[in-house]
Amino acid sequence: MPTPLAPVLKPWRACAWWAIDRWVRQAFPEVPTLTTQDLAAWLNGDKEPLPILLDVRRDDEFAVSHLPAASRAADLDTVLALGLDRDRPIVAYCSVGYRSARLVHQLQAEGYTEVYNLAGSIFQWANQGRSLVGPGQPQVHPYNSLWGMLLKPGLASSTSEGGRQ
User: Fold this and answer.
1) pTM (2 d.p.)
2) Is residue 149 exposed (0-12), middle (13-18) or buried (19+ Cβ within 10 Å)?
């Protein structure tokens, strides 16, 4: 059943996504981004090698859902411990793209040459109906109630909240 806010949320979401994109790009201007469409095409195409997908969110967020074949690596030390080839393509994502942009920036400083931030991250991936791995119905941890409004209706899981962006 639609909420009374439904007519307001769609244009609000569009404005919010515009602002988030500007915020992330301004905070991390040298971080290359990859759109969800480009990542989906890369994963489904013939371009090799396939990128390593790093989920930068917390354990509880990852447990609700994540992109297929993604590994959770919430910080630089965790990624460095993986011993990844510094020339292998890596795509990092989080909820909306800020935490992952920060990690990509750190990886660039460590000499990783082909690292990308997934623009819009898992929220946009889910909003576009792309596949997720998780228990039950595909949903996304909303991070908190405010950030959860960026997800289309029915996509925010009912897990407990408590995170900060």
Assistant:
1) 0.90
2) middle
